[in-house]
Each structure stands twice: as structure tokens, then as C-alpha cells.
Design goal:
By secondary structure, the protein is mainly beta. It has one helix and eight strands. It has one helix at residues 3-13, and strands spanning 17-19, 22-24, 29-37, 40-44, 49-52, 56-60, 65-69, 73-80. A five-stranded antiparallel sheet has the order 1-2-5-6-7, covered by helices on one side.
Length: 92
């Protein structure tokens, strides 16, 4: 997906809040953004906010941040943070 689709999904589907050019991810949501760079996928885990400009997208994770071109391919993985408190993901 492109940057416009990423922004729309963050706001419309995942309940993120837009403030100026930044979209803040709700604290109860675990969000991983995968960046497709050539043949590789680069994960940005525990995303807290995403800033959209005309030239680039700034993805801010818990411990790192990435600046990527708006033409980059994005993939999202999202889960409710409260769902997984009782055990390992996928093992119930």
C-alpha cells in the first residue's frame, strides 16, 4: 500500500488520531509497520506515531524511527494490546 492508504487505514480502521501532519496510534494498539525496501521487509515495531509530508513519511517506534519516501510500500500488522496479556500470541 502507499502512504495515502496507510494514513487512511490508521485513521479509519485503527482509531488513530490525526493532529496536523502526524497520526498518533492509540496506546492500546500494538502496531508494526513493515517497509518493503527492494526485496527486503524492514519491521518497525511498537509504532507510536506516523508523520506524513509531501516528500517523506516519518514512522516513530518505541525505540527507533525511520524516514522513508512516500513511494515506499507499506504493510501493517495490528493487534489489540490487551488481547495477549494472558499468554503467548497464537497459543491459547
Amino acid at each position: 500500500m502507499n502512504a495515502n492508504a496507510l494514513k487512511a487505514i490508521l485513521i479509519e480502521e485503527l482509531g488513530s488520531v490525526e493532529s496536523g501532519d502526524t497520526v498518533d496510534v492509540p496506546s492500546d494498539r500494538k502496531l508494526t509497520v513493515l517497509l518493503r525496501l527492494g526485496d527486503e521487509l524492514v519491521p518497525v515495531s511498537k509504532v507510536r506515531s506516523v508523520r506524513f509530508t509531501k516528500a517523506f513519511v516519518n514512522i516513530v517506534g518505541e525505540s527507533d524511527q525511520f524516514f522513508v519516501d512516500t513511494d515506499c510500500d507499506f504493510l501493517l500488522k495490528s493487534e489489540d494490546a490487551q488481547k495477549r496479556e494472558d499468554g503467548r500470541p497464537g497459543f491459547h
